[in-house]
Fold this protein.
Amino acid sequence: MLRMTSESAAVPTRSKPKRQQAVLTVQDKTQVSENLVRLCLGGADYAKLNRNECTDAYVKLLLPQPGSGLAAPFDLERLREEAPELLPARRTYTVRRWDDANERLWIDVVVHNAPGQNGIASDWAETACEGDRIALMGAGGGYAPRREADLHILIGDHATVPAIAAALEAMQPGARGYALIHVDDEADVLSLTHPEGVVVSWVSGPHENLLTAVEALDVPPASIENRSVHVFCHAERGLTKRLRSHLVRERGIAREDISISAYWALGRVEDRFQAEKREAIGRIDPD
Ligand SMILES: Cc1cc2nc3c(=O)[nH]c(=O)nc-3n(C[C@H](O)[C@H](O)[C@H](O)COP(=O)(O)OP(=O)(O)OC[C@H]3O[C@@H](n4cnc5c(N)ncnc54)[C@H](O)[C@@H]3O)c2cc1C
């Protein structure tokens, strides 16, 4: 899974989720901050997951529709043919940490339960108990900080915190750059481990404040010209489009030096949001 560049830096290749289901059990649950729940999931099926070296490695949780009476593992092919309305919901979560020796992994789930904004995965995480079974597929992933980059820029919101935290931990001690993270609630600000040369800033208030903070970043034009900036930018869809426009069109950062996609979309359940990636509204890159 590792590709070596001319600078001998290990760069993970893009990894697509495997279709095999792994049924794991909840082994532990901790409240990381006001609205972030950490779940440790483990079991012998761990081996079925396509563990990879991307710092943004992600799994798909398969959650039964309430009232369906179905439980993991799911016969997805049969459901697709005979009762598509009963197909489990798929929700994407970053693997915050892998533990091969003990066949377990951790995911951090944002609990967003404002009226009209609660979701099946957020509700599941809030009520999950030790011993609960959960089906997962994966893992996919596509980014790890480039060792040869002289400036890293990490941009995200609450849902991106696990991926940004993993990226910061994977950086070389001498790495330099910025991490800008938006949270709705200041009680969700965390103390993240990061190289001394990376400035981590938390932004609150309206989501647009994240864009304003990115616009104010001091990025040497020479780093952009010589392609030594590496950007990771993932947030709510509408905001991510505006961030892309700023980074590529206004700053002139090469698209190949930016890992960018939407992690969720306001007013959309994830199944709809994922389906919309095939439509104009769902595309982050203009045609
Ligand atoms: C590659 C990838 C990695 C991701 N990693 C993580 C992760 O590690 N942790 C994490 O918490 N999320 C992560 N997400 C985002 C997560 O998949 C979505 O937030 C997902 O929609 C949550 O599912 P749900 O069932 O709770 O809500 P849904 O049923 O999908 O949505 C219900 C309602 O909640 C709103 N909503 C969805 N997510 C949020 C949110 N974060 N804040 C406020 N409102 C929201 C929607 O707009 C919708 O109106 C990731 C997404 C991707 C694509």
Residues 58, 91-94, 107-110, 112, 117, 119-122, 158-159, 162, 263-270 surround flavin-adenine dinucleotide (CB under 6 Å). The chain is about 20% helix and 30% strand. Confidence is low (pLDDT under 50) at residues 1-10.
